[in-house]
Amino acid sequence: MIAHRLLHPQMVVLVTSALPEEKYNVMTAAWCMPASFNPPLAVVSISPLRYTHEIISKTGEFVINIPGVELLDVVKYCGSVSGRNVDKFEKTGITPIRGKKVKAPIIKECIAALECIVERSVNAGDHTLFIGRIADYWTREGVFKDAYTMRFRPLLHLGGERYCTIQEI
Ligand SMILES: Cc1cc2nc3c(=O)[nH]c(=O)nc-3n(C[C@H](O)[C@H](O)[C@H](O)COP(=O)(O)O)c2cc1C
Fold this sequence. Notes:
Elements: E1 10-11, E2 13-19, E3 23-29, E4 32-36, E5 41-46, H1 51-59, E6 61-66, H2 72-78, H3 88-92, E7 96-97, E8 106-107, E9 112-124, E10 127-139, E11 156-159, E12 162-164
The protein binds flavin mononucleotide.
Residues 12, 25, 27-31, 45-47, 50-52, 79-84, 127, 157 line the site of flavin mononucleotide (FMN).
């Protein structure tokens, strides 16, 4: 048992980033959380080994995309190969759409997306915490009945190769 696994399951997200000329990248992340209501902040924890780390450090922007369970294969792929070597949008067939406030794309097949502008980055051991101000957000029509009632099944990471979803009780 790795100690970190005690903090799982964690919701899986797809973090997108963009270089000039609409060169997009996407990576899977399970270490992501809301951090402040006012101002609205969210945090992603990303290793400096990731291409995404290099892009966010350069551009100061990223989007947190929320996939449903149907995107499991995309999540696995985007969490196992680097955008340094392949175009993961092309390989997976997911569709980038323009957000309102940042150049990083929203993934059309996702349920929701948070457009973030980096306020601060903090070294945290072998990862960096990118603290992002949520400049805008998007949800697919009909997926939320209200702020708490979801009509989709989110993907949660248990650790290793294992995933689950949730059921309201
Ligand atoms: C379920 C899952 C969760 C992951 N969570 C993170 C994470 O929170 N932070 C991180 O740095 N890498 C995480 N990874 C690893 C990256 O997604 C992976 O190294 C990816 O290939 C990096 O892509 P890039 O080099 O194109 O940025 C995770 C992978 C998986 C499969």
